[in-house]
Amino acid sequence: MGEKQLVTEPEIRETPAPDGRPRAAVVRDALGVGVAVGLSGFAFGVTAAGAGISTLQACVLSLLVFTGASQFALVGALAAGGNPFTAAAGAFFLGTRNAFYGLRLSQLLRLPRALRPLAAHWVIDETTAVALAQPDRRSARLGFTVTGLTLYVLWNVTTLLGALGAEAIGDTKAWGLDAAGPAVFLALLAPMLKTATERAVAALALVLGLGFLPVLPAGVPVLIAALAAPVVLWMKGRRS
Amino acid sequence: MNVWIAIGLTVVGCYAVKYAGLLVPAGALERPLVRRLAALLPVALLAALTAQQTFSTGSALVVDARAAGLAAAGLALLLRAPFLVVVAAAVVVTAGVRALGG
Predict the structure, then answer these.
(1) How many CB atoms lie within 10 A of CB A238?
(2) pLDDT for residue A225 is more than 70
(3) Residue B96: inside a domain, yes or no?
(4) Of chain B's two ends, which shows fewer C-beta atoms within 10 Å, N or C?
(5) Is residue B68 a part of any domain in this protein?
């Protein structure tokens, strides 16, 4: 999930487009994103199994966390022997971007209060990207719902299949499946590296993450690496 | 048990931030500095996680077949391959290098 950061500076149109967008076109876009990304739940199921997470636990994560990067981060940290609190903290910080998506979506979708607790669960990279790409509120609501539903169903089914498949396969490392997690992170990261600032943050985080790895308990180095973001912003502020 | 604690905390934390975004009045999180930080935080975390999960085993830094797999994923990204192809490239190349004794 979350491979494309399409939502940088979206413009929310308050008035509907003159003719509206055909529902079929919105549904087609939404299904395309939902199916492509939903299938990658398979990679999560396999990675979770390889990390020693039970099939039930992998499924609970996909059902109740439902934000891919956080899920991968959590199982990765647990596999590395991290304690539950630092592991959950890393997953939590990765999930904070969803709050900013929600902020945009609440203005765009104007959901009834009663629906918000349910809709919140689907506030992720892809549903936001599809909803923000629509020209009017009706299309945005449709895009959000179809993407959310498709992705949620597929992500959970493929998580189960991946976890079961990995158990059947046996040694996931022989199949190179331990490379799936980092590849997912790289695919999420690549579209974010738009300017020198993002690249500086990534480079500093990489050095901090690897540098502290041998000397600090598992899960802590990644939290220290998160400091690269404020440090680079602060240095940029001082220079200008 | 530890795994369930971590799962419980992650479930609550990740849902809370999603819901908070829908509830918070517009403007509260719209300060430029907060938005810049929120955009850069995932960059830092993903870079660190990519590096750690490629170049470490436990608390030791290592270079093994995963490095080749990640390079393949990077190449696929440069070629604008779809998400699943990127992940598949990493998996196949890592498996291939291991099979060759790497």
Answers:
(1) 7
(2) yes
(3) yes
(4) N
(5) yes
Q: Residue B97's domain spans which residues?
A: 63-102
Q: Is A56 exposed, middle or buried (0-12, 13-18, 19+ CB in 10 A)?
A: exposed
Residue of B nearest to A40 (CA): B84
- The confidence band for B28, taking pLDDT boundaries of 50, 70 and 90, is low
Query: Which pLDDT does position B6 carry in this prediction?
Result: 96
Neighbours of A137 (CB within 10 A): 19
Q: Choose from B5, B7, B19, B63 for mutation: most chain A CBs within 10 A.
A: B7
Per DSSP, B57 falls in state: E
Q: How many domains does chain B have?
A: 1
Q: Partners of B57 in the beta sheet?
A: B60
Report the alpha-carbon distance of residue B89 to residue A117 in Å, rounded: 38
Average the pLDDT over A186-193 and give the result. Answer: 87
CB atoms inside a 10 Å sphere around CB A122? 22
What residues of A are in contact with residue B41 (Cβ under 8 Å)?
A: 93-94, 96-97, 226, 229
Model confidence over A87-119: pLDDT tens digits?
Answer: 999 999 888 888 888 888 888 898 998 999 999
d(CA B15, CA A106) in angstroms, rounded, equals 16
Task: Report pLDDT digits (tens) over A198-213.
Answer: 999 999 999 999 999 9
**DSSP-derived secondary structure for A154-203:** HHHHHHHHHHHHHHHH--TTTTTGGGHHHHHHHHHHGGG--SHHHHHHHH
Looking at beta carbons, which residues of chain B come within 8 Å of A183?
A: 69-70, 73, 86-87, 89-91
Q: Which two tokens mark A24? A: 């079929």
pLDDT band, residue A14 (cuts 50/70/90): very low
Give a yes or no: residue B29 inside a domain.
no
What is chain B's mean pLDDT, rounded? 90
pTM summary value: 0.78
Q: Which residues of B touch A65 (CB under 8 A)?
A: 7, 10-11, 14-15
